[in-house]
Specification:
alpha/beta; six-stranded parallel β-sheet; 34% helix
Length: 452
């Protein structure tokens, strides 16, 4: 009898890649994958618990999925990812609805776990050593859940940074890179399937290769990916200033397919806060890396993320951060309120900040960024951009897409008018005629007019 499986993926894009690999492994072993949980014999939830909001979402989703044991055909509920890894000891006591837990380094055994649950196994744990090496070959089995024209490429697992606020090293282990050969093979497969934009992700992409090649090799990977026929855009997320090399900056500038875009989480700009965070950067180092990036690529889009309300953050330290943001003018910026996570050094620090003050500071920075973004967008009016079309607004003749300066799912959009029908995955030249706070509005150009 055919066995059906449904999978819900929560959290970040790195988690999504794990989910896609699990789907591929399940399909390889003969399971039929279904979108409707009510039709599934087994339901899998790939969880995230990086911060409290993610933890709450994971628990709520698990309880929601458990209801299908009564209302659907579900015979087993499996929780994968960070939640079971983090709360291994008390997991089944707190969530007896769950039949099996699969850890962050054990997801490649998902088909075997599903079989055992279907055969009656209960309160089963599959938690491999979190430093377990990645099996690069499994990437080529992925069943992608993104739009056909773009894909994430997970180049490494784990993290060696041990920031005082972060649980990731305890959940994901030390940094382990995949081989250049396995990544190129997967990228070639993705390009052959029609992927035009490749988004490189990891906990820290800038140290890629350090563990297996004796030094960072992100620049080498970019050069090899740049040679793959069919790819048009290659994008970098999660490069840290303290580990971003001059070689990577040079490769970004020289490889024509690499977008002049970088996500570089700095978290703060006050040296004293950075020190308490356990970051190995400083404001001077951050300034140095930004200057190098802008010198090599004057048109680069810089994205960063910040944490406000870190324990002990004074008004002076917060003002230092505001002054820095006002001066640097990041093109894209996200702000998180500090989340006090059990088991981290920061959770035990004195002078924890009131939740209300955290939110005030977060809103103040986002208001600042809204003004900065609006001014930067206004400068784009009158320019011509290459735009990757992602879809059309329902019941309107307006399309939406992204430029090289916008990452999928997190950045702004370009709203496009066109005399001809467009399709998702098309590249078009767009004359920008209007700007919003975060988005642009323009018209498709025809004829011989060239892009920027």
């Amino acid at each position: 009898m055919e066995k059906t499986v449904a999978l819900t993926s929560l959290g970040c894009d790195k988690n999504r890649v794990d989910s896609e690999v699990m789907l591929g492994l399940l399909a390889k072993d003969g399971f039929r994958l279904v979108a409707e949980e009510a039709e599934a014999d087994i339901i899998i939830v790939n969880t995230c618990c990086f911060i409290k909001d993610a933890l709450e979402e994971s628990i709520e989703t698990i309880l929601e999925m458990a209801e299908y044991k009564e209302t659907g055909r579900c015979k087993g509920l499996i929780v994968a990812g960070c939640l079971g890894q983090r709360y291994e000891k008390e997991f089944f006591e707190e969530l007896p609805e769950v039949d099996a837990v699969v850890g962050t380094a054990a997801y490649e055994s998902i088909a075997e776990v599903v079989d055992e649950v279907l055969q009656g196994a209960r309160q089963m744990k599959r938690l491999e050593d979190i430093d377990h090496p990645m099996d690069g070959a499994n990437g080529c089995l992925r069943l992608r859940s993104t739009a056909p024209y773009f894909a994430y490429l997970k180049i490494s697992e784990g993290c060696d940074n041990h920031c005082t606020y972060c649980v990731i090293p305890k959940l994901r282990g030390r940094h382990r890179s995949r081989t250049l050969e396995s990544l190129v093979a997967e990228a070639e497969m993705l390009a052959a399937e029609g992927v035009k934009e490749l988004v490189l992700v990891a906990q820290d992409t800038s140290i890629y290769g350090r563990d297996i090649y004796g030094g960072p090799k992100l620049h080498t990977l970019l050069e090899k990916l740049n040679d793959i026929e069919g790819l048009a855009w290659i994008r970098l997320l999660y490069c840290y200033p303290e580990t971003l090399t001059d070689e990577t900056i040079a490769a970004m500038a020289q490889c024509e397919k690499v977008c002049h875009y970088i996500d570089m989480p700095i978290q703060h700009a006050s040296d004293t806060v950075l020190k308490r965070m356990g970051r190995r950067s400083s404001q001077a180092l951050i300034r140095e890396k930004i200057a190098k990036l802008r010198a090599a690529m004057p048109d680069i889009a810089l994205r960063t993320t910040l944490i406000v309300g870190f324990p002990g953050e004074t008004e002076e330290e917060f003002q230092d951060l505001k002054d820095f943001i006002a001066e640097i003018k990041f093109d894209r910026l996200g702000v998180f309120s500090y989340s006090q996570e059990d088991g981290t050094p920061a959770a035990r620090m004195e002078n924890q900040i009131d939740e209300g003050l955290k939110e005030e500071r977060r809103e103040e920075l986002m208001d600042m960024q809204k003004s900065i973004s609006a001014a930067l967008c206004e400068q784009e009016a009158g320019t011509v951009k290459e735009v990757l079309i992602e879809g059309r607004l329902p019941e309107e003749e307006i399309y939406c897409g992204r430029t090289r300066r916008d990452a999928p799912e997190i950045d702004g959009l370009v709203f496009v008018s066109s005399e001809e029908e467009l399709y998702s995955g098309d590249f078009v030249q767009v004359h920008i005629r209007e700007a919003g706070d975060y988005d642009l509005i323009g018209d498709v150009m025809y004829g011989d007019e060239s892009a920027e």
